[in-house]
Amino acid sequence: QVQLVESGGGLVQAGGSLRLSCAASGRTFSSYAMGWFRQAPGKERLFVAAISWSGDSTYYADSVKGRFTISRDNAKNMVYLQMNSLKPEDTAVYYCAADHIIAAIRSNYGVDYWGKGALVTVSS
Hints:
By secondary structure, the protein is mainly β. The protein is built from 1 helix and 11 strands. 32% of the residues are buried.
């Protein structure tokens, strides 16, 4: 079992930055690929970024490539999402996710564990 708790959401002006954090429970954290998703009001939940268990491989949705950076610290059981140059269309609830198979995260199919989400609001 893995429990995920997001933090760091809030209100920011367009062009600003925020860093989301996800704290994971469990001694097997380093065996999981991790990811971030987001869900805007009235929309489906979409893939944002993923990172392999080792941190060597990262993947991004085209909409955030070059602006967002995913990272992890296996010693602290943490995963992060640094968000720069934020736009109003980035407004959403952001979810942390974990799965042994990174393809599940990248395809948003059958992901094993989800956090409860953190709201990010970007004002214009």
